[in-house]
Amino acid sequence: MQEFPILSGVNKMLMTDITKSDKLYGKYSQVEMLDKETLEMLKKCAEGNYDIIRDVFDSFVPEAEELIRTIKQQKEIRDKEAIRVSVHALAGICGSIGAERLRKIASDMEGLVKSGKGSKAFELIEVLLLTWTELSDDITRFQHSLKK
């Protein structure tokens, strides 16, 4: 069987990226996806009107999606300062609804850019995207768990 050295190099590069993402993702796996304390506080503030909580999450999701889309675009052009601003905004809105794991990742990315380690922040983008996928599912489940 003939080997193609270029493809072998690409496979090694892809495996390195996947392994790196897995290790970084594992670092955040101990952080709650949705902070139970914040969710309980939201329920208490809503005083039984769970439509208010649904509205909060319905506002959060498109705003977070737009910020994540922007972060992906900024990664493509390697704009570290723009990423810092975007992850700062993302961390803020995540904190307001208790999306703790995504908030932590975004805050860490911001700190890395501020400390001159933008390339390390770029590595966390894949972890951010994986976390967003999981968080979206958790938000849907949480919204469905609210009484009508």
Number of domains: 1
N-to-C series of helices and strands: HHHHHH
Number of strands: 0
Structural class: mainly alpha
The poorly predicted ranges are 1-20
What fold name stands as the CATH topology? Four Helix Bundle (Hemerythrin (Met), subunit A)
Tally the helices: 6
- The helical percent reads over 70%
Strand residue percentage? under 5%
Mean pLDDT: 85
Radius of gyration: 18 Å
What's the architecture in CATH terms?
Up-down Bundle
Under CATH at level 1, the class stands as Mainly Alpha
**What kind of sheet is the major sheet?**
none
Distance between the termini: 62 Å
Based on CA inertia axes, which overall geometry fits?
elongated
Q: For this structure, what is the CATH homologous superfamily? A: HPT domain
Notes on the protein architecture:
- The protein has 148 residues and is mainly α.
- It has a single domain (31-145), classed as HPT domain (Four Helix Bundle (Hemerythrin (Met), subunit A), Up-down Bundle), CATH 1.20.120.
- It contains 6 helices and no strands.
- It has helices at residues 5-28, 36-46, 50-76, 80-97, 100-114, 118-145.
- Helix 3 (50-76) runs antiparallel to helix 4 and helix 5 runs antiparallel to helix 6 (118-145).
- The longest helix has 28 residues, at 118-145.
- It is elongated and about 45 Å long.
- The model is unreliable at 1-20 (pLDDT under 50).
